[in-house]
Write a structure and sequence with these properties.
With 168 residues, this protein is an all-alpha fold. 73% of the residues lie in helices and 2% in strands. A hairpin with a 2-residue loop joins β1 and β2.
């Protein structure tokens, strides 16, 4: 079967169509499954029920959509539309899968932030920049004291910010 080339302009139109629909879906479904404060609430709650991580839950949701898309493509039984009389068309399922990739990315970013935050307590010491201290007119002892105070302040500020998020 001979097909016309899928031109860059046509591809850009398809990209734009999907991005617009995905934004609508994220807004609509996001409000159904989580509050305005935490887009990952659903993933966290299901993860807790299952004894899994939020990223594992997001991955499972994504794989459910990928499996559905794969079956539709393999069998050829799909409607290339956003909606059908029976429910979602294949475009909708692809958009959902792309959105779940974003949720997975958010879960992984949050997990990385948590790891990095927890690793802050592994910092036992800092190496003061004595040369900069001297340029500022400080003694080595004063540079060391101020560097340690600055590190303590930074760690405490991060802890304050985390407790604000936990309380909110």
């Amino acid at each position: 079967m001979m097909c016309k080339p899928f031109t860059p302009a046509r591809f850009e139109n398809l990209v734009k169509e999907f991005q617009e629909q995905e934004a609508k879906i994220l807004s609509h479904k996001g409000n159904e499954y989580s509050d305005q404060e935490d887009r990952l609430l659903n993933f966290r709650e299901v993860a807790e029920f299952l004894g899994r991580s939020p990223a594992e839950v997001a991955l499972a949701y994504l794989l459910k959509h990928i499996q559905s898309i794969a079956l539709a493509v393999k069998t050829g039984k799909y409607a290339w539309a956003w909606e059908t009389e029976g429910g979602e068309g294949l475009k909708q399922r692809i958009a959902d899968a792309r959105n779940y990739l974003l949720f997975l990315a958010a879960c992984l970013e949050e997990a990385n932030d948590s790891i990095m935050f927890n690793d802050l307590d592994l910092i036992a010491d800092v190496l003061p920049d004595y040369a900069l201290g001297r340029r500022r007119g400080l003694t080595d002892e004063e540079t060391e004291r101020r560097a340690r105070a600055a590190m303590t302040w930074a760690v405490n500020r991060v802890l304050d910010i985390e407790s604000e998020f936990d309380a909110g």
